[in-house]
Amino acid sequence: MINIKLLKGDALTLLKDVGSKSVDLIFADPPYNLSGENYLTCKSGKIAVCDKGSWDQIENIHEFNSKWVEECIRVLKDGGTIWISGTLHNHPSIGVILKKLKLWIINDIIWFKPNAPPLMQKNRFVPSTELIWIASKSKKYYFNYEIAKRISNGKQMRNLWIISAERHITSHPTEKPEKLLERIVLIGSKEGDTILDPFMGSGTTGVVAKRLKRNFIGIEIADTYFEMAKKRIDSTHLELNLGNFLENIKDSKSVQLNLDSKKNKKNVYIEPNSCIPRSEPHPPAP
Ligand SMILES: C[S@@+](CC[C@H](N)C(=O)[O-])C[C@H]1O[C@@H](n2cnc3c(N)ncnc32)[C@H](O)[C@@H]1O
Questions:
Q1: Which of 106-110, 231-235, 246-250, 260-264 has the lowest mean pLDDT?
Q2: Which of 10, 103, 174, 240 has its CA 20 to 30 A from that of 228?
Q3: Residue 260 falls within a domain, yes or no?
Q4: Per mean pLDDT, which range of 135-139, 201-205, 241-245 is the poorest?
Q5: How many angstroms does the Cα of residue 82 sit away from the middle of ligand 1?
Q6: Residue 74 Cα to ligand 1 middle (Å)
Q7: Which has the closest alpha carbon to 31: 93, 76, 109?
Q8: Residue nearest atom 19 in ligand 1 by C-alpha distance
Q9: Within a domain: residue 114?
Q10: pTM greater than 0.85
């Protein structure tokens, strides 16, 4: 019997109600703090100010990160792992906090999105990656090496994950692909384990946790996203055949860094998490 607990409100407060050392796996996709006048993105082919929502504009992001990461570490079991996604806007802060809390940093996953949209400015590289920190409280943590290898077609899985950003299933501006969460849940937990997502958004982690028969605790502050996640998770069915499921999510043998393939061009990500700092154009060469 799977237990799904969805909590509406501020993670900084609600995490305090979660028992110490009660969670096996945490996936956190926190505000990256990339919205606002200082960050630009591309909308309908035009440069626009990046605006994911007011939840993504935090005055003291490092203080905010310290508070929720500390609470997450309190609720994490000794043999559990925490996975935290980010971009350059936020991952240095998270890295410093993980070090300060003396956590064991297991890996940094580089999630490469082959279908990231081109950049309109000509003064930097095209942002096409996100980074996921993986850390634990001790050096003895759960990690399903065999499943990772199976997904990787019998080869050791590398820390470069090539997963296209998908068109949104929901209207949430930063919905993560289920494919990304499927790997994390399968490699970082077992059936019957408890998974926590303190920034649930549209509920992607909950959908995958339920499908793969894990218990789930999800926290979301915004009413609309909370209802969206609840509906999505409620209508998710349990996966009855794990063997078939694993076959279907295996890396395609042809996965390659082919940025120009026609297939990639068809599926351009609309508004990515790749807002970039506003900057002056480089002066023309003399
Ligand atoms: C980056 S999004 C998560 C997206 C999610 N991974 C998905 O696949 O849909 C972050 C979410 O955290 C929520 N949020 C922001 N601050 C919060 C807080 N203090 N407590 C709980 N939720 C918060 C936002 O409303 C937003 O939906």
A1: 260-264
A2: 240
A3: no
A4: 241-245
A5: 16
A6: 20
A7: 93
A8: 10
A9: yes
A10: yes
**Residues in the ligand 1 pocket, defined by CB under 6 Å:** 10-12, 29, 31, 55, 172, 174-176, 199, 201-202, 204, 219-222, 225
For 194, other C-beta atoms within 10 Å of its C-beta total: 22
Domain range enclosing 190: 4-251
Residue of the CA atom closest to atom 4 of ligand 1: 201
* Number of domains the chain is built from: 1
CATH of the domain at 79: 3.40.50.150
* Per-residue model confidence as pLDDT tens digits over 101-156: 999 999 999 999 999 888 877 888 999 999 999 999 999 999 999 999 999 999 99
Q: b/e for 93-124, b at 16 or more Cβ within 10 A?
A: bbbebbeeeebeebeebebebbbbbebeeeee
Closest CA to 236 of 206, 195, 259, 264: 206
Q: Is 255 in a helix, a strand, or coil?
A: coil
